[in-house]
Amino acid sequence: MKLFYREFGENEQPLIILHGLFGLSDNWVTYGKRLADLGFKVYIPDQRNHGQSPHNSTFNYLAMTDDLYDFFEEHQIENAILLGHSMGGKVSIRFALENPELVKKAIIVDISLRDYPKRTSHMQIIDAMRRINFDMAKSRKEVEMLLRERMPDDRLRQFIMKNLYWKDKETLGWRINFEGICENLEDLFDGVDTIDIFNKETLFIRGGQSDYILEEDYPVIKYNFPKSEIITIENAGHWVHADAPDEFWNIVSGFLSGS
Question: Is 75 a catalytic residue?
């Protein structure tokens, strides 16, 4: 699958950022530009069924890992650094373990290798988005007002609003593929169970107020990623990079620079 992507920097060292569920490349533009200024060639693809990338009825980690491999081949990428959040982190985990020769180091943000119980919050988000009638809601402000009823959290609502786009001059719509996600949602809670090892530097960043990486996950992380470090940002939830941007940036830039 040919993925839409954003690119920043003219440097030699490739760095690929993978967004999470309901996200898109636009969420990471600020970080992408800052990383380019540090000396990286940054690629931020929209994963399948998200953003401006194609929709497909197959939506699981095997497919997304294959998409990333195709992306590497398309752009002749070698020795890349991966930075993945949540769903994008799980794709990064699989890719690094399956293709260690293509990856220099990895940063995994608030996701572990284990499988997860189904979370009703994801269906609530989908339900809130589906309930928007774009024949009635003719502006971004009107859409936000309707979303506010079912999505009171301002940060989450603004995150979801990034998926809005103008289908034509008068009609708004959602970029995300609801059908593809709903039909395959349970696959997105699958774990990575393998004896493969990625024996290079890896940083796991967890939110102290999130339950996506627990202390009980540490032994498995250390087995598959023996050169990993796990750092907790105490005042952050699952969207670590949005909840604590300064601390997140300091940790990521420090890891990349070796300091």
Answer: no
